[in-house]
Amino acid sequence: MEIGQKVKVVRLRDRVSAPIVKRLGQVGIIQGYKMTDSSGVGIMVKFEDNFTTWFFEDELKLQQ
Q: Which domain of life is it from (predicted)?
């Protein structure tokens, strides 16, 4: 996955807050990467409403 690509949130690995649960099924654009504590690299995703958060790679699916 590369910066600028569109991705869809297809699952959530952990318990998260309501604003993030709301993103399930939504499409956003990869903005960058984030080092996580112990699980590797997270992917920063920005949505249409300018909300930005990070997800694990297995929580996202590339969109055409």
A: Bacteria
CA dihedral 7, 13, 36, 26 (to 10 degrees): 20
Q: How many domains does the chain have?
A: 1
Cα separations in angstroms, 29 against 15, 37, 38? 22, 23, 24
Question: Quick check: is 1 in a domain?
Answer: no
The widest CA-to-CA distance across the chain, in whole angstroms, is 31
What percentage of the chain exceeds 70 in pLDDT? 98
> And the tokens for 54?
């990070």
Model pTM score: 0.89
Containing structural domain, residue 38: 6-62
Token pair listed for 46:
């920005």
The alpha carbon of residue 41 and the mean position of all alpha carbons in its chain are separated, in whole angstroms, by 11
